[in-house]
Amino acid sequence: MRSYRELFRTPEYTPFFLSFAAQNAALTISGLALATLVYRATASPLLSAVSMFGPQLAQMLGATFFLSGADRLPPRATLTGINTAFAVCTALLALPGLPIAAVFALVFLQGLIASLGGGVSGGLLNEILSKDGYLLGRSVFNMASGLMQVTGFAAGGALLALVAPRVCLLLASGLYLTTALVLRLGLTARPPRTAGRPSVAATWRTNAVLWSSRPRRLTYLGMWIPNGLIVGCESLYVSYDPGSAGALFASAALGMFVGDLTLGRFVPATLRARLDIPLRLLLATPYLFFALRPGMPWAAIAVCLASIGYGASLVLQERLMELTPGELAGHALGLRSAGMLSMQGIGAALAGTIAQLTSPATAMTLVAVASVAVTVVLAVLGRQVRGEVAEVRTA
What we know:
By secondary structure, the protein is mainly alpha-helical.
């Protein structure tokens, strides 16, 4: 499957794609609105960053206990329920006078609910598309995420100039309800991919199986840590330049769109497989420029260039699917999503803490240095694993 026309002619792909786009628009609008609301109330870069990316902190906890449901629950009903719950939580965040502690409790609850969604969505996409169409289909989802972030952050920034953050949260809640409706009407009721009831024991067993392979471990770490640290840089846009935060987020999303479009549609598979390390380095190095405290538009250009590096996740997802049995695809992709989002939450907390003690620009620079260092270490370890495999094959 090499054409977009063929992709969108695949049954169920179009409504699934539209629901994904609407969900991402809701996520970006609500995230920017909530971060702005918290920053206005507290003037804290740390609390602002954690409010926007805090749901990710709960992702790994959810993956530890609930992820077996990714392959053991009916996909349509599960995804519809998740988006309905998001709509309710986002509407509650818009309540006037809500204490900061209650805000973070709701943010944490959203993260627990979302921990199941990545695995269910990834496994369902793997079912809807043929094996040769997965990467193209996934790249279109990533491009939609980038476009919806551009649209969502630009629209969110414009809306915040006209209306209160709480109104933006209510609009996002309506988008989540729309997503739930599209999923309910557009998808077929499929049975679970794996027999058995979801349980903590089943989750731990499968996590252990997935984590037991060293190549899979390195693939997971490559998807989680460099990505999460750079999202920590992004979490400081509001405190770095409150008036231009929406433009910076939109620039980051545009760069991600360009990277996913290029990799998914134009780069040959043989070349694509070798680009994960250069792309992860590209993801971090432009943020070193923030040591000079650039203003607009230079900051936006650096952010856009860096975000092309998010295309590394496509390469690593393709590698993960090659290393994973088909019956564990949903769980494996759910663990990828939960771990990546958890690291994004940790990255936001780390960057916010450093910014609290120094400045947002200094924090961005230091976190980018850490991301480069992690990528270099993982590259060396990956080369060692490939060398060991080659020795075994020639023995």
